[in-house]
Design a protein that fits this description.
By secondary structure, this protein is an alpha+beta fold. Helix content is 43%, strand content 24%. The strands form 2 sheets. A 4-stranded mixed β-sheet has the order 6-5-4-7, with helices on one face.
């Protein structure tokens, strides 16, 4: 919008307003993505705080059932069973493991996993047996 105004002012030989709106166009192109990133972080941080205010994260449990080839998750409110065949990928980050399921995923914090080396080998074996991707992105950061 500002770029259009700058072009119109340059066409009408009003150079001052043309340069002004040109500068505003460049500044908005630089500042807007930073501001939008800030808004998204603030929104999701508040959303997570509000939705988890009454829940206790320590009460959530994840079990891997080899006989059924499924993942069972349960907490105070829900009980869910996910077949290994529904997994589309496994991503290991520095502090979490993401079990990707179509458009969503299950986030497993590493700090709650007692035997990390055995568990990572188990996740890799699940990825191999289900023929899904296993990625390690230790340097991943929120952009």
């Amino acid at each position: 919008m500002f770029a259009l105004a700058a072009l119109l002012f340059f066409k009408t030989n009003n150079d001052f307003l043309g340069y002004f709106f040109g500068a505003v166009t460049i500044l908005s192109a630089i500042i807007f993505p930073v501001y939008l990133r800030y808004l998204y972080k603030k929104h999701y941080r508040n959303y997570v705080r509000e939705t988890l205010k009454t829940k206790k994260l320590a009460d959530a449990t994840v079990k891997f059932i080899d006989a059924e080839k499924a993942i069972q998750t349960f907490d105070l409110d829900t009980d869910t069973k996910i077949n290994f065949s529904a997994l589309t990928g496994i991503v290991e980050l520095r502090e979490h493991i993401f079990l990707m399921i179509n458009t969503t995923g299950l986030i497993v914090p590493k700090r709650f996993i007692p035997d990390m080396q055995h568990s990572l080998a188990y996740f890799k074996s699940i990825a191999n047996s289900c023929q899904i991707s296993y990625g390690e992105e230790m340097d991943w950061k929120w952009k």
